[in-house]
Amino acid sequence: MKTESDTYTIRPSTPNDLGAVDALLARTYPKLLKADYPPSVLVTALPIISRARPELLACGTYYVAEEDGQILGAGGWTRDRKEPRLGHIRHVVTDDRQLRRGIGRALMQRSFHKARASGVICMECWATYTAQAFYTSVGFRTIGPMDVPLAGGISFPSLRMLRDL
Fold first, then answer.
1. Nearest alpha-carbon partner for 45 in 160, 161, 149, 159
2. Which positions ≥6 away from 81 have C-beta within 8 Å?
3. How many structural domains comprise the chain?
4. Residue 152: what pLDDT?
5. Which residues, 6+ apart, have CB-to-CB distance to 35 below 8 Å?
6. How far apart are CA 108 and CA 61, in angstroms?
7. pLDDT value at position 140?
8. Rounded CA gap, 122 and 137, in Å?
9. pLDDT (mean) for 5-33
């Protein structure tokens, strides 16, 4: 099922989107996160979090927003491994040059709809400080701070957020 906006389309990602999503994350995350994180955090975390995850691109519940062959945003969800009624928002990004067009909101609405249809009743998000206002605007509530463990013993300061479906 595709969702059409005024000009962009939301579709499931494929492994063929790896290069474009990788480039989007690498270009956008450093710009958007620098206002909320010190350079000492970004220098270690950005090389890890600014890479597309091949397993997400192939999972069927990760989506891209595309316009004229260009990927403007990406994000989706996966089911919790232990609690099947819990879903997790995954690796959301919107091109910093395309903010305020509803791209992130459309990706979230697609995720909520598909998760709800598959029996998920609650979504969890590990949000960057930068994205807290966005996630609040789509119905999440902040539970509290957390450190997300990354590769090599690196952790990334984040916020745990929840939303009922």
1. 149
2. none
3. 1
4. 84
5. 130
6. 11
7. 98
8. 16
9. 92
Cβ count near 122 (within 10 Å) = 14
pLDDT of 78-124, one tens digit each?
A: 999 999 999 999 999 998 887 788 899 999 999 999 999 999 999 99
Residue 51 DSSP symbol: S
Q: Token match 């004229």: residue?
A: 68
CA distances from 64 to 25, 36, 45, 91, 104 (A): 12, 25, 23, 11, 10
CATH code of the domain covering residue 122: 3.40.630.30
Average pLDDT over residues 62-78: 95
d(CA 142, CA 151): 25
CA angle, residues 65, 26, 4, in degrees to nearest 5: 5
Q: What range defines the domain where residue 102 resides?
A: 3-164
CA nearest neighbour of 117 among 54, 60, 66: 60
DSSP state for residue 140 in the 8-state scheme? -
pLDDT tens column, 134-156: 999 999 999 999 999 998 889 99
Yes or no: say if 129 and 159 are a contact pair by the CB < 8 Å rule.
yes
- Rounded distance between C-alpha atoms, residue 119 and residue 136, angstroms: 23
pTM of the model: 0.90
